[in-house]
Amino acid sequence: MNELKQKVLLSIHDVEIAFGEGKKRFIAVENVNFDIYKGEIFSLVGESGSGKTTIGRAVIGINPTSKGDIIFDGKKINGKLLKKERAKLTLRIQMIFQNPSASLNKRATVDYIISEGLYNNHLFKDEADRKHKVANIIKEVGLLPEHLNRYPHEFSGGQKQRIGIARSLIMRPDLIIADEVISALDVSIRAQILNLLKKFQKEEGLTYLFVAHDLSVVRFISDRIAVIYHGNIVELAKTEELFNHPVHPYTKSLLSAVPIPDPKLEREKKLIVYDPNMHDYSINQPSFQKVKPEHLVWANRDEMARYQESYE
What we know:
Layout: E1 8-19, E2 26-37, E3 41-45, H1 52-59, E4 67-72, E5 75-76, H2 83-92, E6 93-96, H3 100-103, H4 110-121, H5 127-140, H6 157-169, E7 175-179, H7 187-204, E8 207-212, H8 215-221, E9 224-229, E10 232-238, H9 239-244, H10 249-256, H11 263-268, E11 287-292, E12 295-299, H12 301-311
Parallel strand pairs: 3-8, 3-9, 6-7, 7-8
Antiparallel strand pairs: 1-2, 1-4, 4-5, 9-10, 10-12, 11-12
Helix pairs in contact: 4-6
């Protein structure tokens, strides 16, 4: 990880994302701060409705931010951008969506779906060059040349997700936002897709913002993990550090729900139920603080003292 720290690719600073106005205004995400280093897989984990997908969509400009800065490769990318700037950003940041069936054009062949970004951004010299690029990416994601003339409905869920991955990777982006990319897939296919993503991290130096709700999955794929609860990041640490030394009560509750392969141990384990009312922020306000180097937690002064004591 030390070499990854040499370059921060994406920075989220004090970001708030709100929807609606006046009395109907709803703050979905607030006080969000984290950096993603070039070449790492950074996971954002939380329950449904916690705001993790909202953050991912804000990075690519789908959800506007109401406060804070999103900095990509040294430049602010939230707020108004020129059409040319937005187009350049689309080349460098790609998203793989949760539901491959819904995100693929049902009327288009696989060849066209994968080539669409090339067409829209004029990323090939001639037809032979386009075909060569498509053939290469199809092979890399584990599909066959004969799949190119077929339509999405002819494929399984896992194959559709591979098509979605190929569509993103052919643009040769710097950052991929992977939004619950395996949640709709059979368990037997999930490992294949995760291995595929890790393969491109190692071979191409790709950086990922990996959005998920399953901690057992992100342990396998992530370099670092941020845990989000109701729009706030409550803990952030390296993967094994988070699993071995969870500090925030919500993180502990999530970890307690991860299934244990041993049936006897699974029956004997105790679930930890998180109660947000356990925090008293009426006097001492919380902030994102270091409990240890590279291990941050959302806490006030009193909680921080307890967390540090329990850690040691």
